[in-house]
């Protein structure tokens, strides 16, 4: 059943998985939009990752709740394991907060409270879910509640996702004692200290998120991972909630203070208690608030994203798959690159046509031009029948390509999937990327479309890399690694997790003022030597000082 699901657009990528907008095609021809969370092919043979993936699917299939992203299955899609999830038309909370920051917009207090209350409702359901057979609690703890894992739809639905490291009583892939998993800045003190956990750890994480929604600031984010861990362990909060947002009164500050107690015994007993406190406050202080207010905010703030998603869905439902299409120039095809004979003929026509006072020569030139055009049309019609399409998918997706020894797009990196129109017959396709083994393959092109997926083998380990930009100017900068190997846009005080950067090799990051790359602000070289996403290699780029700092190993 490999073709039940079709990958379309990659909408997110993490250290071990990538999420695609895709669709399911049924035997009766129906089409349904879905999200496909696919383990990176390079990790598909790692038993620990596959178990974690399978655990997430098995846990989430039991969770059927309006505030949890619905998981529908665990499948193999295009050569790699994948979790099939419902598609939520909206964006994650981190995307919303970043957009608010970029537009100098503060998230309204009732919207922030409503998001937290809905998330708490979903958490309490997961925490108290009973086994359908035994009737006993499953014992689910999410352990990775963060803005990236809270999805808000354009219709104000709030859903929790990514139970990838969730803990359950009967989970197949048990976490070993002393192993810490999750995002440091959103952990509870007991979690970051690798102590035993209960549902109150998720309440603490959700309280951090609410604090950040109200202040538009990070609560525990230090200058480096070690500092962040220390802040969380000691519950050190140097910033005052009410000073950052004067609209927060004593009652609301007290609600947050209880959720953020270092001692779990001092917090809310469970997520439901936290939800009740939030809803009581909303009803008392903001009686006119409705979810439509949040819906209006989402549609206004993420208007461009909404249009883009609508375009993607429209295109996806019209076509089974729509990768990038490129036609390689072929020698002798009119309009692409003319042969010397054709150039000579065209030159003669221009000379004859250009002479004045000679009607016979003019007519002869016109006749020759018509013959050439007719020949060109005939060539295209017959030549088209002798061509086929190569639909190429690669992992990683950003690679350099050569076709029959000729670099594609002047040797620049390209992104797959893409479609290449080639003459029928054998062609040598060479795919390369630093840190990976080049894969030359001979492919026989015939009439129609040949779909080929190629997974590059790692020649050396990849280093988890995180790049941050520090600047007093809140504008968005454009970053390029290794002359186009990877690129991204990034605003100050945020970071970019770069995937597929080889360990122990020298790399260069260039920082431009915008995506046009017209003004190079600075560049720096570095050699990443990190081995775990729990402690990635962090490059801090200070725009004002024109200096990059990073760990010395």
Tags for this entry?
Transferase(Phosphotransferase), domain 1, 553 residues, 25 strands, alpha+beta, Phosphorylase Kinase, domain 1, 5 domains, 13 helices, five-stranded antiparallel β-sheet
Explained architecture:
The chain contains 13 helices and 25 strands. 32% of the residues are buried. The longest helix is centred in the C-terminal third of the chain and has 26 residues, at 359-384. It has 5 domains: 5-88 and 314-318, 2-Layer Sandwich (Phosphorylase Kinase, domain 1); 90-308, Transferase(Phosphotransferase), domain 1; 340-384; 386-455, Carboxypeptidase-like, regulatory domain (Immunoglobulin-like, Sandwich), CATH 2.60.40.1120; 465-549. It has helices at residues 47-61, 93-102, 109-128, 189-192, 200-215, 225-234, 241-244, 250-259, 271-285, 291-301, 303-318, 340-354, 359-384; strands spanning 5-13, 17-25, 31-39, 71-77, 80-85, 90-92, 150-153, 158-160, 324-327, 387-395, 398-403, 406-407, 414-415, 418-423, 425-432, 439-445, 449-455, 465-470, 476-481, 486-491, 495-498, 507-512, 520-526, 537-542, 547-549. Helices cover 31% and strands 26% of the residues. The strands form 6 sheets. It has a 5-stranded antiparallel sheet. Strands 11, 12, 13, 15 and 16 form a 5-stranded antiparallel sheet that branches.
